[in-house]
Design a protein that fits this description.
Elements (H helix, E strand, L loop, with lengths): L9 H21 L4 H12 L4 E3 L2 E4 L3 E2 L5 E7 L9 E8 L6 E6 L7 E7 L5 E9 L4 E10 L7
Parallel strand pairs: 1-9, 3-9
Antiparallel strand pairs: 2-4, 4-7, 5-6, 5-8, 8-9
């Protein structure tokens, strides 16, 4: 009778412990994006268009004591008129399993191109925000968030 409460052999327990240790050591590194993955995603989305610094304000903490709930606010300078507005803001992280973290869509009716949320970061990494304007222009901002555990360096 092999149920969840059945006694396990020593060999089975050691095998499970070895698998768990291997997953903890090897697994996280296999499931992380990097700067190249972010670049590839940006190229796929924007077909290699030039991105200019400015107009995007990315507000993230320099140090996050809890990587599970990292606050992020993105704001883009724009008149938000029918002729000139922010279509979308895309946020990327170069240390998460998938580089694309989130996207905010806007229209002139929004009145202001600003959004806030929280995201999960497993490690210290760069956060990149790209604003896509109605005329096709792209603006970007970048910030590093250092994820610590209990206030200790990490």
């Amino acid at each position: 009778m092999a149920g969840p409460h059945a006694p396990r052999t020593r060999r089975a327990v050691l095998r499970l412990a070895a698998l768990a240790a291997a997953a903890a050591v090897i697994g996280p590194d296999l499931a992380r994006a990097d700067a190249k993955a972010v670049e590839a995603e940006l190229k796929k989305l924007f077909d290699g268009k030039t991105m200019a610094e400015g107009r995007v304000k990315l507000d993230v903490p320099q140090i996050a004591e809890n990587g599970l709930v990292v606050p992020i606010t993105v704001e883009v300078e724009s008149p938000m008129t029918e002729q000139d507005y922010v279509k979308a803001v895309h946020v990327f992280a170069d240390g998460n399993p998938l580089p694309g973290v989130l996207s905010f869509k806007f229209s002139p009716a929004a009145g202001r191109a600003s959004a806030s949320t929280r995201m999960r970061l497993a490690q210290t990494q760069n956060i990149i925000a790209v604003a896509e304007m109605s005329n096709g222009a792209l603006f970007t901002a970048k910030a590093e968030v250092k994820v610590t555990i209990g206030g200790c360096g990490g």
